[in-house]
Amino acid sequence: MTLPSNTQLAVSNEFLNDIPALRKRLQEEGYLFFKGILDVHELTGIRTDMLVLASEYGYVKSGVPLEDGIYSGKPFPTSGKFETSPLYRRILDLPRFNAFGGNAVLSLLLSGLLDSEIQEHRRRIGRITFPGSLKNTTPPHQDYFYIKGTPDTYTCWIPAGDCPEELGGLAVMPGTNHLGMLVHEPMQGTGGHGVTHERCKQLGKPWLTADFKAGDLLLFHGHTLHKALDNRTEDRLRVSLEYRFQRKTDVIDPGSMQIHMNGAFEQ
Ligand SMILES: O=C(O)CCC(=O)C(=O)O
């Protein structure tokens, strides 16, 4: 059967009052997707904080509303890697961005799913993805490759603003949480390693994604294969957040207790 290259994530809102059903789906599919369960007002605040900083560095077009996140076209000055930039370093210190890691919806959901006291990782990520920087698109990977500690770590990927497919959301491959660790090879894109596109095709499963809206939450297991989609817009910045959770009693990698890219920033 030929599957379309991207099909839609299954929405799990109908099970929000049924934790056993959510656990079952998460165990089977490796992900859960919820529409509109996070506070858009709080997310808009974080988006604004990030765009204010980006605009200080000249990356946001002036003369149009900041919250539209329109790229100025100013090229990245250094290696082109957002994650080692001074701008990113400053994003990681933003109070509202960090406080969202303790968000009540996330905490209640994750502690219910894991049936445990939870530990949120300090290694939070607030990402801005530039239009046209396709060589930086995050390639297919499993988070355990980078996060280590326990594979039972769950990533919450959250668009800070509407993120239609052309702005480059996130796609997951369902059921890949059952495959254990796949071979990761050096690859172009954020992170620098991934599972080759050829290998992904061989797995014979579809990539699932959505036209994300602010307030949506995509949550997945450390073994679930996922990738970013290209930001194919002409001039729009994609703003997204990542928070990670695990059981308090599970092994944790020391890097998860530090800020992302600790010490690896360019001046
Ligand atoms: O948003 C991205 O580009 C990558 C996100 C990702 O890989 C993750 O949340 O684990």
TrEMBL record:
Phylogenetic placement of the source organism: Bacteria, Bacillati, Bacillota, Bacilli, Bacillales
Single GO MF annotation: 2-oxoglutarate-dependent dioxygenase activity
Pfam families per the UniProt record, alphabetical: PhyH
Keyword Oxidoreductase applies: yes
Key words of the record: Dioxygenase, Oxidoreductase
InterPro entries linked: Phytyl_CoA_dOase-like
Official protein name in the record: Phytanoyl-CoA dioxygenase family protein
